[in-house]
Amino acid sequence: MATTKPVPRFPDGFLWGVSTSAHQIEGAVDEREPSVWDEFSAEPGRVRDGSTAAVACDHVHRHGEDVALLAGLGVDAYRFSVSWPRVRAKGGLDFYDRLVDDLCAAGVRPVPTLFHWDLPAGLDWLERSTAERFAQYVSEVADRLGDRVARWITLNEPAEHTLLGHALGVHAPGRKLLLDALPVAHHQLLAHGLAVRALRAAGAGDIGIANSHGPVWPAGPDPADVAAADFYDMLLNRLFADPVLLGRYPDGLGELMPGDVEADLGVIGEPVDWYGVNYYAPTRVGAPQGTGTEFGGVRMPAELPFSVREIEGYPVTDFGWPVVPGALTELLTAFRARYGDRLPPVLITENGCSYEGVDDQARIVYLDGHVRALHRAVEAGVDVRGYFVWSLLDNFEWAEGYTRRFGLVHVDFETLERTPKASYGWFREMLREQRR
């Protein structure tokens, strides 16, 4: 096996889990209403391999098998997402009733995410009413599942849904609004705040959000590079953390948002019980270069006030993302320094990597390094309460289709056979050691 040195012991009660999302694994497209991702995937050229998530892992029909994999893995919790389009269909919550019952029977805590990018077709985050409709949907889900679900996540990665889906057009719904996509960020954050209120009204007492974050490194010491990196850090990190944790936007952004921003910030800043961080890699950013640059397979327009540069000197995943475990420690200690006592306990709600093969020794090295980096953050005084691997299963990886594999479990997308990878065994044994 790729690593043999024991992982340091985490505090008692530390939560270990794995994550998935509805659109990426559920399939059963004819048993729900369409989403913006169904529409996007149907357009030629949008998804790398021309695939769709119509079947995906067929989790809706095979969830019993997947719950058995979770139980065999030995995780404390399973973070999944509830499909808003499925809930809108007749009997749509019945599936989640069964899933939650099965998880509880297996001794695995259900941790639902209420929005993971699969917006119902016909709704639009440019419209304020979508946030209000979201709160109504959240109330419906909480009323049905709240007797068995103790921990809730409102939104997953509003930054990516804004930037990739609405600013750059490489994710659904495929808009290229650049900075005119800022209202999408605001309405998602407003939806988060309204969802917190709806969950509190339903009796929920353990609520967070899953925001994506990573350190932003200037390409060099030149003031133009430093300024460009600071702007990118504002877009990726502070734009989505400051309103939730501080109740305000970074300087200069509030006036660009629609509606009564001050009143909305009072909703967005509703206290959360913990703060979720999805971490994958740092980003190196410099001044604009006059031509578009490519980052993670995404072409960045030349008119942006920054350019994303390659990070050299580190191994990369099959996705081309640099593997920098120490940047996770850097990120968490910087967040503690920035937000102080306004930062609640932290959960790592996603961390993982794309590698091919069942004997995935590179994934073991990746996870081992990041778990150790997380422990260093705990030792440095950051109040981290849990860690979720992305992902349980190989799945539909958005615009990459089935060309990227993040799972601890290999899925044959022809037969749908599940095969635990070497990393599944490593994670299982690591959890056993944590509990000795």
Classified by CATH, the class is: Alpha Beta
User: Average pLDDT, to the nearest integer?
Assistant: 96
Order of helices and strands: EHHHEHHEHEHHEEHHEEEEEHEHEEEH
Tally of contiguous helical segments: 13
Q: What is the CA-CA span between the terminal residues?
A: 21 Å
CATH topology name, in short, is TIM Barrel
Structural class given helices, strands, pairing? alpha/beta
Descriptive overview:
The protein is an alpha/beta fold. It has a single domain, classed as Alpha-Beta Barrel (TIM Barrel). Helix content is 39%, strand content 15%. The chain contains 13 helices and 15 strands. The strands form four sheets. The chain has an eight-stranded parallel β-sheet with strand order 3-2-1-13-12-7-5-4. A hairpin with a 6-residue loop joins strand 14 and strand 15. Helix 7 packs antiparallel against helix 8 (182-201). It is globular and about 55 Å long. The mean pLDDT is 96.
Short description:
This protein has helices at 22-25, 36-41, 59-73, 84-88, 92-105, 128-145, 158-167, 182-201, 223-245, 261-268, 326-339, 361-379, 422-434; strands spanning 15-19, 77-81, 109-113, 152-156, 207-212, 216-218, 275-278, 283-286, 293-295, 298-300, 307-309, 346-350, 384-390, 409-411, 418-420.
Q: What are the SSEs and their pairings?
A:
Layout: E1 15-19, H1 22-25, H2 36-41, H3 59-73, E2 77-81, H4 84-88, H5 92-105, E3 109-113, H6 128-145, E4 152-156, H7 158-167, H8 182-201, E5 207-212, E6 216-218, H9 223-245, H10 261-268, E7 275-278, E8 283-286, E9 293-295, E10 298-300, E11 307-309, H11 326-339, E12 346-350, H12 361-379, E13 384-390, E14 409-411, E15 418-420, H13 422-434
Parallel strand pairs: 1-2, 1-13, 2-3, 4-5, 5-7, 6-8, 7-12, 12-13
Antiparallel strand pairs: 8-11, 9-10, 14-15
Helix pairs in contact: 3-5, 6-8, 7-8, 8-10, 11-12, 12-13
Keywords: Carbohydrate metabolism, Cellulose degradation, Glycosidase, Hydrolase, Polysaccharide degradation
Family: Belongs to the glycosyl hydrolase 1 family.
Protein name: Beta-glucosidase
